[in-house]
Amino acid sequence: xxxxxxxxxxxxxxxxxxxxxxxxxxxxxxxxxxxxxxxxxxxxxxxxxxxxxxxxxxxxxxxxxxxxxxxxxxxxxxxxxxxxxxxxxxxxxxxxxxxxxxxxxxxxxxxxxxxxxxxxxxxxxxxxxxxxxxxxxxxxxxxxxxxxxxxxxxxxxxxxxxxxxxxxxxxxxxxxxxxxxxxxxxxxxxxxxxxxxxxxxxxxxxxxxxxxxxxxxxxxxxxxxxxxxxxxxxxxxxx
Length: 239
Fold this sequence. Notes:
Elements: E1 9-14, H1 29-44, E2 48-53, H2 61-66, H3 71-94, E3 100-104, E4 113-114, H4 117-125, E5 129-133, H5 143-154, E6 158-163, E7 168-169, E8 181-182, E9 184-186, H6 187-192, H7 200-208, E10 213-217, H8 223-228, E11 235-238
Parallel strand pairs: 1-2, 1-6, 2-5, 3-4, 3-5, 6-10, 9-11
Antiparallel strand pairs: 7-8, 10-11
Helix pairs in contact: 1-3, 5-7
C-alpha cells in the first residue's frame, strides 16, 4: 500500500474553527470525531500524521488587541487555547483507537508532553498520531508559522492546510461567484498576489526549505486519502 503513496509523512494544519460548531466558537465533539475519522483512514494507508491546530474557536487575539491588550499576552492566551483544542482532538482520536500524543511548546506536564523533536519523530515512527500544541512557544508567531516550522523539524513530505474551500482562489469564492481557483502556484506567486494561503513568514519558511503546501477542503469526502496518494485535489504551492 505504501508504494502507492506520494506523501508518507504529513503535517496537517487545522484552524481552530475546524472544531467549532455552527456559531464558529467552542468545540463541537462531532467535528472532532469527523476529523479523527479522516485521520484514521490516512493512518490505515501507512501515512505518518502530525497535526498543528489553531485556536480561533476559543480565542481571537485580535479582539484583545483592539481593546488595548498587550500583544504577547494575547498570543500566549492563544497558545494555551491550542492545547485545549489538541486535547479535545486527542480524545476523539483515542476513542477511534488511534494512539495519540499531545506535545506542547509551552511545558505543562500534567496534560501534555513537552515538545521534543526527536521524541515526536519517534512517536511517528511507532505509528502514533502527534498533535503539536502551543504554537512555536513564542509570541508574534502564528500557528501557520508553527506548522511550517514543525513540518520541517519532523521531516514531513508536505504541509496540508485544511480549510473550508477546495483550494486557493484569486478572490473569496464565498463572496465572488466568478472567483478563479488555482491548481498550482509557486511560493512567489502566492506572496506577490497576496493570496491568503498562510502568512508570509510561513510561506517564506516553506520556500526556503522546498516544502510543498497543499490547500484543500477538509470536509470533502476522502480528500486526505486522495491527497496522500497524489490525486489532483486542492491547490499545490511549491517550487
